[in-house]
Amino acid sequence: MSKLKQILFPPNDHKPAVLVLSDGSVFQGVSVGVDGCAVAEVVFNTAITGYQEILSDPSYAEQMVTLTYPHIGNTGATAVDDESVQVFAKGLIIRDCPATDSNWRSEQSLRDYLQQHQVVAISDIDTRALTNQLREQGSLSGCIMAGDIDVDQALAKAKAFPGLQGMDLAKVVSCDQPHTWSEGTYDLNSQQFRSSGVQNHRVVSYDFGVKRNILRILHDLGCEVTVVPAQTPAEEVLAMKPDGIFLSNGPGDPAACDYAVAACQQFLEAGIPLFGICLGHQIMALAMGAGTMKMKFGHHGANHPVEHVTEKTVMITSQNHNFAVADEQLPELLEVTHRSLFDGSIQGIRHTQKPAYGFQGHPEASPGPHEAKRIFEPFIAAMQQEKANG
Ligand SMILES: NC(=O)CC[C@H](N)C(=O)O
């Protein structure tokens, strides 16, 4: 199709779609993805950029996301920007999908990307009203139907969705086999992934749904990374004699990942340097004896201010979580290092007697903000210290 024709007559532009929420709300719109039906928890994300990274973040399994920024698709899609092997978000809900994209790196349009990854998506709905509703009522289950539409059936499906509480999704999205990771972050100038010459630390990374850019940062920081499946027993990992262990981000309820909590307890006992991001941070808190809870609508965005409690410094962070470490009955040995300046919730922890650190936000945010990258430093320093101690 010529570019002009594409602009005037974008594919699928008039195919109807509907989003039905479990409380009976109906949003009528236009399909911009494949025909079909998607059922999941609906969350809103306030990031202006990064729709492709959001869609391919495994932490969005069993969720569909509405983006508050109104124009989604302007910069197209570029394969190397995917955060994992596939799209994990169940569906996409947007205000407007432009008929054409403009970006020197774009390889395909968002519509084509959604087709390729078989994603059900709806546009032309009032995402501002939807977001207000989710903020007032909290996250709700929903169903997007595109193609053959039956609103009653969509409502029944939305109502039947069991919710994320108690769902263990880490083992579902994890890799099957251990493998090594040896690729650094992307260099825009050379258009290649960096390759770090020196690998000082041997790190085992649990894959609970790990984002590629976290592994890339570990590589940049001089870590030789072995990625292992979510249910790998602690003994197997300890037998690999790593310098440090990383617990990744991932979807679902941390409290349902009992095997990971048990493994983490063994690592804490062994005193091996530990670092957890998002789900990994929550699992570490559970292993220390803290609790976790489901938030009303979670944190999903790219401009969340987080304060370092003692330093009184503030970082702008990227966030994607629905659960959080509970403030009630925190164990003595857990120190809260960071808090959200939006709602005061716990954003960072450390063990007072062991080299173990957790951070709720995403220091690998791509695209940006990158100032939370500092959060890797205590983990790297702990591995260096252990080596120095012999
Ligand atoms: N990005 C993540 O790791 C999310 C962690 C967890 N599934 C939550 O929703 O809170």
From TrEMBL:
Which superkingdom heads the taxonomic lineage of this protein's source? Bacteria
Task: Report if keyword Magnesium is assigned.
Answer: no
Q: Where is the active site?
A: C278, H362, E364
Please provide the record's keywords in A-Z order.
Amino-acid biosynthesis, Arginine biosynthesis, ATP-binding, Glutamine amidotransferase, Ligase, Nucleotide-binding, Pyrimidine biosynthesis
Which pathway is this protein assigned to?
Amino-acid biosynthesis; L-arginine biosynthesis; carbamoyl phosphate from bicarbonate: step 1/1; Pyrimidine metabolism; UMP biosynthesis via de novo pathway; (S)-dihydroorotate from bicarbonate: step 1/3
The protein's annotated catalytic reaction(s) are: hydrogencarbonate + L-glutamine + 2 ATP + H2O = carbamoyl phosphate + L-glutamate + 2 ADP + phosphate + 2 H(+); L-glutamine + H2O = L-glutamate + NH4(+)
Please name the Pfam families in this protein's record: CPSase_sm_chain (PF00988), GATase (PF00117)
GO MF term (any one): carbamoyl-phosphate synthase (glutamine-hydrolyzing) activity
Per UniProt, residues of the Carbamoyl-phosphate synthase small subunit N-terminal domain are: 15-145
Q: What class of enzyme is it?
A: ligase
S-adenosyl-L-methionine listed as a keyword: no
Catalytic activity, EC: 6.3.5.5
Supply the InterPro entries for this chain. Answer: Anth_synth/Amidotransfase, CarbamoylP_synth_ssu, CarbamoylP_synth_ssu_N, CarbP_synth_ssu_N_sf, Class_I_gatase-like, CPSase_GATase1, GATASE
Q: Where is this region: CPSase?
A: 1-201
> What residues does L-glutamine bind to?
S59, G250, G252, L279, Q282, N320, F323
Q: State the family named in the UniProt similarity comment for this chain.
A: Belongs to the CarA family.
**What HAMAP family has UniProt attached to this entry?**
CPSase_S_chain (MF_01209)
Q: How does it assemble?
A: Composed of two chains; the small (or glutamine) chain promotes the hydrolysis of glutamine to ammonia, which is used by the large (or ammonia) chain to synthesize carbamoyl phosphate. Tetramer of heterodimers (alpha,beta)4.
Chain's role: Small subunit of the glutamine-dependent carbamoyl phosphate synthetase (CPSase). CPSase catalyzes the formation of carbamoyl phosphate from the ammonia moiety of glutamine, carbonate, and phosphate donated by ATP, constituting the first step of 2 biosynthetic pathways, one leading to arginine and/or urea and the other to pyrimidine nucleotides. The small subunit (glutamine amidotransferase) binds and cleaves glutamine to supply the large subunit with the substrate ammonia.
**What is this protein's record name?**
Carbamoyl phosphate synthase small chain
Species of the source:
Marinicella sediminis
